[in-house]
Amino acid sequence: MPSESETLGFVVLEAMSSGIPVVAARAGGIPDIIPADQEGKTGYLYNPGDLEDCLSKLKPLLFNKELRETMGKAARNEMEKYDWKAATRKVRNEQYNAAIWFWRKKRAILFRPLQWITKRVFPSPQVNYR
Fold it and tell me: In what residue span(s) does the Glycosyl transferase family domain sit (predicted)?
């Protein structure tokens, strides 16, 4: 994946799903697909614009069939964790709850001045419990 500007990562995901190790620019969303702990196991990332770094990651894969196959299998296994059920579960359990929390926080900040004014204009009646 030589592109340093089109880094959404679909090509990387497709390659890994097909059991092909990836050599890609460390840019955009690709480091999220191949995080630091997976680098060298499922693929390699090179520094954008650094041709020598890119070639140093490509050469071992070009000349070592066993390494290609091992990394390809690891890439495939990594991608199997992201089936539709897992993706839906992540959206439902993590991202949805985070979005709700964020909205409630924003709403509280937005309505704070209105609440202050409302309390001053319409004070709560005093209740006598005798």
Answer: 1-77
pLDDT per residue as tens digits for the range 7-40 = 678 889 999 999 999 999 999 889 988 999 999 9
- Could you list the residue range(s) of the whole structural domain that residue 97 is in? 83-129
Whether 76 and 88 share a structural domain = no
Task: List the CATH number of the domain containing 55.
Answer: 3.40.50.2000
pLDDT at 116 (0 to 100): 85
Of 30, 5, 28, give the one whose Cα is nearest residue 15: 30
* Distance separating alpha carbons of residues 42 and 72, to the nearest angstrom: 7
Tokens 């500007």 — which residue? 5
How many structural domains are present in the chain? 2
Whether residue 2 contacts residue 26, with contact meaning beta carbons closer than 8 Å, is answered with: no
pTM of the model: 0.62
